User: What shape does this take?
Amino acid sequence: MSLLEQLLEEKSTRRKGGLYHQTQILFAYNSNRIEGSRLTHEQTRFIYETNTFLPDGDTPIRTDDVIETINHFQAFDYMLDVAGQPLSEEVIKELHRLLKRGTSDERDPRFRVGEYKALPNMIGEMVYTAAPGEVPARMQALLRAYREKPSVNEQDVIDFHYRFEAIHPFQDGNGRVGRLVMFKECLAHGLVPFVIDSDHKLFYYRGLREYPQEPGYLVDTCLSAQDKYRQLIAYFQQPPLEP
Assistant: This one.
């Protein structure tokens, strides 16, 4: 059974405590935390398992953090369902729609949930991205070049991720959508996926920032995350005991 088959089977049976269950929590917690979510790992787990969460002292919880955590669980399910399909603009836009629906951003008509950005944006401090009018053509060119590859390895997935983030096609949510796309493409091509640890956020951001000059930083960060997730897979793929 491939990793994708295992995740889909556990998803369909809603197996508790298995690889799918743990991946949902691990991925949603870390990916949202990288983008500033204040939810703890324990709160993320409670939301997934019980649809509730426990307050953590006097720390205020943003409604969007809770909504986007629930949305990430649903976007992950969609990503699994389409993992075997070619990567397309439609898939990427649907991931964004699922991630951002019901948030305060959706109430702003300029935000365009599930559609490319209408306003220019930057990454961090003074890192320019594609202008809104350039996004459709650049995304189409990026996807066309990626789909023309005779085979795809880890370096290709990481390179696509950098180029996607450099375009920054959406008003917000680009990092989380991009990491879901990386996971999807690893599954599609028989590669162990990357779940970037929020503790390595600064290394990850440095890798994206310096990729054109030194791709090794981003590659090493992703491969380190891959090694960690591989250990989790190995634990859950142990053969069952004989009855």
Q: What stands out?
A: The mean pLDDT is 94.
